[in-house]
Write a structure and sequence with these properties.
39% strand, 3 domains, mainly beta
Length: 463
């Protein structure tokens, strides 16, 4: 068994923070998944690492542990959890004014309880938490629990990416936290070894993977390692990977799998190689051409409208992968949006200036209007009574054919031309009556006509 060090520190910010007179805690989440505590898989686990967000939690510059044994108090910060009348001090990893990381010992009972953070003898109000035995979170490259996962070739120790794809049969280590409690004092040092009596399944795409090892890492307290054999029958640059531990599903991350060789080619933000470029640049400069037809219907509204446009923004590294991600073909993915304070504290897209933009095609030529920062578009809404800049209400809709988008170039984006071929509109032929009820225990069949032969169709539901 090979061991690899994975840093536990995923800081929201490393710049100095002003100290607050009060210690305020806003959220506590799994250090890998960052899922909100209100979700069924957003619990804290016995022996798992977690991150606390708030104000006045610690010093203005980060303080980290550097050697074993690990302390219960670090730079004046301590964290305690109380469940069923039993209070346990947590094992500290790092502390900062806005963010603290620690490991919950394996000793507290499971159930509903409270967490208190104390800094320089000032304690926060108790935060409600729920402690369970198993709630695994998979670390992600974006440090926010989504997108490409921290999945490592067990032989070469190379992190999975589009240029270092796995092949069927390869051994891959999944790094995370929350696998379950262990016996012993983790503050004194790591406790590697298979955790006995785990009810564990790992899914890669739609296939269940063989688990070769599941337990603590040999390097770090609270850091878990699951080694799997990559199953046959699924390939792609964004294959969903998730773990079911004790009946609780983890967050979904992705991995790149090629039938042979190490390269996987995929365009778009989800490509792990693009994310690597974004890491070097502190964000990703993106340009997207959009053409869509939307149907909106409720008991009060029946709406149909078309839109087209271009979108130019720089996306901060901290938010990459937090949008609904498109998985590999013939697989599905659940995107559970992380707590707002997680993944680097979120971030704001920076609009980019492409100059004047126009669109021409079978329905004529139109100048596009910046309706949102960075988005230059045109909308066609036959059901609207009045028009406004960027909205056409004369009955025009997008017709099949080739459309060309042209930009003169601005201070951020050079001159460009892009073409899109639009096929006959897709028609949802078995659209249910309103209101519609979806029965989770029954299959949901959706049928349609038209669309491009061989094109990928994404079906997205939201709860």
């Amino acid at each position: 068994m090979k061991w690899m060090f994975v840093p536990m520190v995923a800081l929201l910010s490393t710049f100095a923070q002003g100290l607050d007179a009060q210690v305020t805690v806003s959220a506590a989440v799994n250090a890998a998944s960052y899922l909100n505590a209100s979700l069924p898989n957003g619990n804290l686990t016995e022996g798992g690492a977690f991150v606390v967000f708030g104000k006045g939690l610690g010093p203005s510059t980060v303080a980290e542990v550097s050697a074993f044994p690990l302390p219960n108090t670090l730079a004046g910060t301590s964290v305690s959890v109380t469940v069923g009348g039993t209070t346990v001090p947590c094992i500290m990893l790092y502390t900062l004014a806005t963010q603290v990381a620690a490991v919950l010992p394996s000793s507290p009972p499971v159930g509903s309880g409270t967490m208190v953070v104390t800094y320089n003898s000032t304690s926060s109000a108790p935060l409600r938490v729920n402690v369970v035995a198993h709630d695994f979170g998979v670390f992600a490259v974006n440090q926010g629990g989504s997108g490409p996962g921290v999945l490592v070739n067990a032989i070469t120790n190379v992190v999975n990416s589009s240029s270092a794809s796995a092949n069927p049969g390869d051994l891959v280590d999944i790094w995370g936290t929350g696998l379950g409690p262990v016996a012993g004092n983790e503050a004194a040092g790591p406790l590697p070894g298979n955790i006995p009596s785990l009810n564990l399944q790992v899914y890669v795409g739609n296939q269940q993977a063989q688990v070769m090892y599941a337990g603590r890492s040999g390097c770090c307290t609270g850091l878990d390692q699951i080694e799997i054999s990559v199953p046959a029958g699924v390939t792609g640059c964004a294959v969903p990977v998730y773990v079911v531990d004790g009946g609780v599903a983890s967050n979904f991350t992705t991995m790149s799998i090629a039938q042979s060789g190490s390269s996987c080619s995929q365009s778009g933000e989800n490509d792990p190689s693009v994310l690597q470029i974004a890491q070097k640049n502190g964000g990703l400069r993106t340009g997207v051409v959009l053409m869509s037809r939307a149907y909106g219907y409720t008991t009060a509204i029946d709406y149909e409208g078309d839109s087209a446009g271009v979108y130019f923004v720089k996306v901060p590294l901290s938010t990459l992968g937090q949008s609904v991600q498109l998985p590999a073909a013939n697989t599905c993915m659940v995107t559970q949006f992380p707590v707002g304070a997680g993944a680097g504290g979120g971030g704001t897209n920076t609009p980019l200036d492409p100059g004047s933009v126009s669109m021409s095609g079978p329905i004529g030529s139109y100048s596009l209007v910046e309706s949102l920062p960075g988005f230059y578009g045109i909308a066609f809404s036959p059901s609207s009574a009045t028009g406004s800049p960027g909205l056409v209400t004369d009955g025009t809709v997008l017709e099949p054919g080739s459309y060309t988008f042209t930009g003169t170039g601005g201070k951020d984006v050079g001159a460009f031309t892009a073409s899109v071929s639009l096929t006959a509109k897709m028609n949802w032929t078995n659209r249910p009556a309103v209101p519609a009820t979806i029965t989770r225990s029954q299959p949901l069949t959706i049928t349609w006509t038209n669309g491009s032969s061989g094109a990928l169709v994404s079906i997205i539901g939201q709860s």
